[in-house]
């Protein structure tokens, strides 16, 4: 029983550590990253996301640092009222995820 408890505890800590590695980037840091050309401007990134779904509007967005990589996450709503989740690499603008929100 102690072994099972120890394994469960270790798994819980490992999961918690992974969650802690993805964090929201604060607005003042975003400005520094854009000015240093570490990431593209958020307007450029949002435009790339909207281009995947012409006519859609962004309903929410956030920049996260995941494992040292900046990911810009955009939620869109298209003309048919369908919601989309689009994730982009904030440095390159590459689309990493483009999924219909369920």
Question: Would you mind describing this structure in some detail?
Answer:
With 102 residues, this protein is an alpha+beta fold. It has a single domain, classed as Nuclear Transport Factor 2, Chain: A. It is 37% helix and 34% strand. It contains 3 helices and 5 strands; from the N terminus they run αβααββββ. It has helices spanning 2-20, 27-35, 42-51; strands at 22-24, 57-66, 69-77, 83-89, 95-100. The protein has a 5-stranded antiparallel sheet with strand order 1-2-3-4-5. A hairpin with a 5-residue loop joins strand 4 and strand 5. It is globular. The termini are far apart.
Indicate the topology.
Blueprint: H1 2-20, E1 22-24, H2 27-35, H3 42-51, E2 57-66, E3 69-77, E4 83-89, E5 95-100
In short:
The chain has helices spanning 2-20, 27-35, 42-51; strands at residues 22-24, 57-66, 69-77, 83-89, 95-100.
Helix-strand makeup class: alpha+beta
Mean pLDDT across every amino acid position = 85
Separation, N- and C-terminal Cα atoms: 39 Å
As for the CATH topology, it is Nuclear Transport Factor 2, Chain: A
Major β-sheet annotation: 5 strands, antiparallel
The main sheet orders its strands as 1-2-3-4-5
Taken together, the total number of domains comes to 1
CATH architecture assignment? Roll
What are the defining features of this structure?
five-stranded antiparallel beta sheet, 102 residues, globular, alpha+beta, 5 strands
């Amino acid at each position: 029983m102690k072994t099972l408890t120890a394994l469960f505890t270790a798994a819980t800590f490992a999961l918690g550590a992974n969650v802690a590695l993805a964090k929201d980037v604060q607005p003042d840091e975003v400005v520094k990253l854009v000015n240093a050309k570490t990431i593209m401007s958020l307007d450029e990134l949002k435009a790339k996301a909207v281009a995947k779904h012409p006519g859609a509007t962004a309903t929410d967005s956030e920049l996260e640092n995941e494992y040292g990589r900046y990911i810009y996450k955009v939620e869109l709503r298209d003309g048919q009222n369908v919601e989309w989740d689009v994730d982009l690499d904030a440095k390159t603008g590459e689309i990493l995820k483009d999924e219909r929100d369920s």
